[in-house]
Amino acid sequence: MTSHITPAGAAAARRAARRRLIRELLLVAGLFTVYKAGRMLSTGRTEEAFRNAARIWDAERALRLPGEGAVQRLLLHGDTLVHTANTYYAAVHFPATALFLIWLYLRRPDHYLWARRVLAVLTGAALALHFAFPLAPPRMLEAANLIDTGQVYGPSVYGAAPATDTMANQFAAMPSLHFGWALMLALGMIAATSGRWRALWLLHPALTLLVVVGTANHYWLDAIVATLLLGVALLLIPRRGPVGGAVAELPGPRRAAAVPVGAER
Question: Domain for residue 86, yes or no?
Fold first, then answer.
C-alpha cells in the first residue's frame, strides 16, 4: 500500500532529521573533547613514561621486530618526503575520521551507528591505557637514536616540552590512535561500499603506520596494541543488517523524508 505524505508530515520528518543530525554532531564533538581531555591525564609522569619506553624498546628487540629507524631512514631521503610525512601525521588524523563519520551518516546510515560505537569503545580503551601506561615516544628515547622529524623538518604538533605541554599529552604513545582510527576508517569504508577496488582503503592505515613509525612518534607495538583493541571493539559491537538490527536505529537524512505520517515513534 502506498503511503501518502502530507506537507506537514514531510516538515515534521525534516525537523526530526535535523534534531538527529544536531544530536549526533554534539555527541561526536563531545567524544572528541573527552578524547583530548583524557589524553592529558598522564601528563607529567615523566620518569614512568621513560621507564615504560625502555621496556617497550627492549620487548621489540626481543620479539625481533624491525627497527623503527629503518622506516625513518627511508623518509630522510629527501626533505620533501619527510615534510609530507609530518604534514600527514599532523593534518590527516582528525579530519579523515570526521569526514568518514559524516559520509556514513549521510550516505550509509545503516553503518553509521556501528562505526561510531566501535570508535567510541576503541577510544575509551585507549584512554584507559594512556592513563595506566604512560609511554614516551621513540623520538624521545635516547636508545632509539631517532630524529624528531617534526621538530627538525616541520610541521610539528608538539610545541612545548612534554611536562609543560598543555595542548597534547606526549606520553600517550600506547596505543596509536592514529593507526587505530585509520584502520577502522578503512574497515568501515570496505564494509559500507561494494566497489571492487574498495580494498584500496587499506592503503590509508598502511600509510599511517609508516608515517607514525617513520616520524618516531610511535613504536611498532603501539600499532599492534591498537589493532588488538580494535579487534575487541569489533567483537563487542558486531555489525548487523539494516532490518531489525541496532544499526537501523538512526535513519539518515535521506530516509527521514520518506517516513510516513505517524510512523515515527
Answer: yes
